[in-house]
Amino acid sequence: DAGITQSPRYKITETGRQVTLMCHQTWSHSYMFWYRQDLGHGLRLIYYSAAADITDKGEVPDGYVVSRSKTENFPLTLESATRSQTSVYFCASSDPRDYEQYFGPGTRLTVT
Amino acid sequence: LAKTTQPISMDSYEGQEVNITCSHNNIATNDYITWYQQFPSQGPRFIIQGYKTKVTNEVASLFIPADRKSSTLSLPRVSLSDTAVYYCLVGDIPAGNNRKLIWGLGTSLAVNP
Predict the structure, then answer these.
(1) Is the pLDDT of residue A39 over 90?
(2) CB–CB of A57/A50 below 8 Å?
(3) Would you place residue A59 in the very low, low, confident or very high pLDDT band (cuts 50, 70, 90)?
(4) Cβ B34–A99 below 8 Å, yes or no?
(5) Residue B51 near residue B44 (C-beta atoms within 8 A)
């Protein structure tokens, strides 16, 4: 199916565990983004990628790692999850010729 | 970096025009202004984008004054289905690996019958 998907949609993990959130898009968009959304903070950019093998930090990168070996995939890893990383995570992609970002359905992550 | 400020909430009635203003005093020359709509349990969805003056599409208009320090999203004749959170986003032109994106905290619009 065309579009942008995220998996899992819901995840509960324990403090200290490593967690990887997956993002896949079928449009071959060069730009991809990871955001977290929390009450009172809105959307905050964690990492973004301009192309395969090119990534850069956003506003709140600490505690997160990304990679992009293929254009269509942009996984986000929490190396050692903390309770403060409990949030809803959104992945997005866009074409470099315009500003419209296409968002995935989100992953609700709870760290206990 | 530009900081975006928008009202926390607004109320309206079906059939009315709704205007939501976003303040971005430190907007940079290369920054565009984009508005998104978000429903509960969904990702944000693009509404409209502009750089200056007025932009109109099939669902909304975007007014940007000459100094570009604010912008106003205008929704004509809202319906109950327009009840959502609206976000203002200020960001620069995608250029290599240096992209800055500043989101407002969102305006929760409630449309009443």
Answers:
(1) no
(2) no
(3) confident
(4) yes
(5) no
**What's the gap in Å between the CA of B93 and the closest CA on chain A?**
8
Please compute, for residue B54, the number of CA atoms within 13 A of its CA located in the half-sphere on the CB side.
4
pLDDT tens digits in sequence order for chain B, 113 residues long: 568 999 999 999 999 999 999 999 988 888 889 999 999 999 999 999 999 989 999 999 999 999 999 999 999 999 999 999 999 999 875 554 456 788 899 999 999 99
Tell me the CATH architecture of domain A4-111.
Sandwich (2.60)
**CATH architecture label of B9-112:** Sandwich (2.60)
Interface test with A, best of B99, B100, B105 (most A CBs within 10 A): B99
Name the DSSP class of A80.
S
Residue of A107, A100, A66, A24 whose CA lies nearest to B101: A100
Angle of CA points B4, B6, B7, to nearest 5°: 160
Residue B2's pLDDT is 60
Judge contact between B93 and B34, C-beta under 8 A.
Answer: no
Contact assignment for B94 to A96 by CB distance below 8 Å? yes
Select the residue of B43, B97, B101 nearest A54 (Cβ to Cβ). Answer: B97
Q: Do B91 and A90 touch (CB under 8 A)?
A: no
CB contact under 8 A, A42 and B106: yes
